[in-house]
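Minutes, project check-in
Item: structure for the 238-residue chain
Input as provided by the requester:
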Amino acid sequence: MRSKLILIVAIVLGLVTTVLFFNYMKRYDEISTANETLVQAVVAKKAIKRNETVSADALQLAQVPKKGLHPEAVKTIAEAQGKIANADIAPGEVLLSHHLQSKKEEALLVSRKVRDGYRAVSVGVNLVRSVSNLIEPEDEVDVIATPEKVTGQPVVSTLILEKARVLAIGRRMVEATEGTPYVEYATVTLEVKPADAVAIVNAQERGSISLTLYSRLVPPDAAAAPGAGAADAAKGAK
């Protein structure tokens, strides 16, 4: 009888000790959380898809525990706004710097430079037809088609496209900077509307293509958007 009583008392004391221990740990965790240092970080307000340009309305600032925060966490919206996501980012996820790339970095893939509704098409050129290889990415050019010469008939060149945006020269997709080695190129890749791409391909099959270069110091003609066809430009000028 006495041994049973001792056992019951031991069980009760054990239960009491367990309850007191868990209450103490819960209170300890609450105090630790309250005293934990919080810092500001940028999180996704909504889902951001890979290759999407990050806008300010897709982001928000949040207070997160400093302890355990990734060293590459983005701290301000300005650091992420306008950049391109190179991975899917879930709502509430802290943005990391390696999740984002600048447009210049993204330009290493020409498919990410092409705007919606446009296509990339390359034309074969030589030194003369490419303005002595002086054309650079992001320049604007006119495209002139010259058919193959037929004996006894005059050669007539035709302006088939105005203000086409240059995406790449050869395999270089960013503008040259100091120290960029010169490499002669034989192709220029343009951003054009699908119908203009067909016209360029047809012109190349029938003869040669030459490019003329616009000055960057002259404001672009509002009547002819980059990549607009020659016919569209003529309509806008009327």
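Outcome recorded: Confidence is low (pLDDT under 50) at residues 233-238.
No further action items on this chain.
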